[in-house]
Amino acid sequence: MIGLVALLSSALTVVGMDRVGDRIAASLQAERRLARYAVLSTEASTFLVVAAEAIQSGLPPEARAARLSPAAADLDRTFDLMRADLAAAVDEAAALGLAEQSRRASQGIAIARMEALFRTARAGLASDTRDRERLQGVLNGFAHAFDPLLNEAVGDEIRTRDAILTRIAALRRSLTGLALAVAALAALMVGGFYLGLLRPQFDRLDRVRQATRRIGAGDFAPDLPERTADEIGQLFAETNRAATALARDRARLNDTIRARTEDLRAANAALARIDADRRRFFADISHELRTPLTVILMEAELGLKGAAAPQDAFATIQARAQRLSRRIDDLLRVARSESGRIELCPEPMDLRIALAEALAETRAELEAAGLEVTVVPGSALRATGDPNWVRQVIAGLARNVLRHAREGGRVAFSVGPEAGYGCVRVVDNGPGIPQKDRARVLERFGRGSAAPPGEGFGIGLALARWVLEQQGGHIAIESPVPDGFRLGTAPGTLVGAYVPLVD
């Protein structure tokens, strides 16, 4: 009997919740459609304001259309969403009958008329005419016709929502009455069984409850009696076994927690380093971009005031602008490499030619900095890579020497095969890279610990590494420079750019 009452209560709950859920969902959909109408009203007002301003400003047709485009795009998107909402509402009304479906579908007429008014107004405002009165007439016609249609549609949605809420209230009253009847029946039956059957078992269950409390407090020796084989006796036995297992697992869990805590500390330290790199990167950007801009502005001001040597001012402006352009190019290359937008086109190429083109681009900068340039091109070496990007990698390595090792006074370039790869080596006579910094300088925004502020963003070697690895190659750093490649007494650095040889 108790089982039958439980089944009845479950069926009542399932059916009632299903119906209430359907009506609540329909009510929420109506509220969402009302919110969509509010958005539509706001966007239509924005469109009117933008159009009125464009008309009063006397903009030409192209500029007027461009000015209206963002507001028109918002309205197009909202109309699309409203049609989708209406289609969903029609599908939801299938359970309410054909009449309700037809009534909701008829709301699409108002939406279609509003959209037609909008498209007509947009076409009229985007026409080639410059007649303000004509354009104002188009705008006034749209405003006067659109508002009544919007109010009518909002009114229909409000009536739909109110009808749904009324049905929810009626269903709630019916379900409440049925639930009270089932509850009364269950109370009568449970009262009879409780006194004769259940109460004696509750005492045994109280012992289990007290035992679980002790286990929760860390006492894993509840010692429950296992004399009987009924369900509660089996529960006693399982509780005892669970307490024994928990005592055994607690030590392992503590060890795991300690290990995970150490992992979290390491992860937090890594995040702190990343955050520090991010702050330093933005500080470097500010410094690298502000300094040439300040010089450009000062030289331009001097030129405007009639400086005695305007050619010197123009030369300074040109040099600073080129420096600024290189920094912006660096940032663009990094952004494209992180997003995967760099398109590499590997093809057979001669690494000697790539080296020669990179030197033609950078030799003047190297020699102007007082560096003695040595080139050992070797014989023709056919490799598979993107010629343009391989050239940029070599040029970037050359500028890296210019930035970090110019005090060494020498730089050497060579090309040769090595273990199935073609290798372009760039060797300098600078201070070298400490062992602890070698992996870091190949990471995005990573710089050596001794690098002075403002000396680059830490992106050159990371970008070179990415470009080479995308083509099947790699980059290697050796510091100090091994014997046979040394250029002087300083430790120096050897950077090798490896590209796969042609089969």
TrEMBL record:
Primary enzyme class: transferase
Ranges annotated as spanning the membrane: 175-197
Every Histidine kinase domain range: 284-503
UniProt KW keywords: Kinase, Membrane, Phosphoprotein, Transferase, Transmembrane, Transmembrane helix, Two-component regulatory system
InterPro entries named in the record: HAMP_dom, HATPase_C_sf, HATPase_dom, His_kinase_dom, HisK_dim/P_dom, HisK_dim/P_sf, Sensor_HK_Regulatory, Sig_transdc_His_kin-like_C
Protein's name according to its UniProt entry: histidine kinase
Lineage: Bacteria, Pseudomonadati, Pseudomonadota, Alphaproteobacteria, Rhodobacterales
Keyword Ribosomal protein: no
Entry keyword Transmembrane: yes
PANTHER family: HISTIDINE KINASE 1, TWO-COMPONENT HISTIDINE KINASE
Catalytic reactions of this protein: ATP + protein L-histidine = ADP + protein N-phospho-L-histidine
Enzyme Commission (EC) number: 2.7.13.3
